[in-house]
Amino acid sequence: MDKIAVYQKIIINLLEEIAARPYSNAPEIEQQVIADLQRNHFQLINVGWHRGRFTFSPLLHFDIRDGKIWVQHNDTEIEIGDELVARGVDHKDVVFGFIPENERSLVKIAIA
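^ thats the sequence. predicted structure below, dont judge the formating
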């Protein structure tokens, strides 16, 4: 299996595992995994009604670009870079897109 396919599988498995956990503050909110395998975009979103209000919010967003996983959004408490490395992603292949480019080198990822 090529690296892109492996990374796609790692991301989808991670998102599905997180989505399977009950959303403790609002169990009626559904967590949905969205995966565009052709364009390499992956999201975990919350959607549904809670206390009379509609909720739609992204929790995680990943892209695969040039053989690297770009973390575009992380609204969880998970150290997502460390989690990806623990699942087999090379730490050099994790890019935090939401951090300014000149500050990315300051982010430390655990090396498995």
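Strands lie at 30-36, 41-50, 53-65, 68-74, 94-96.
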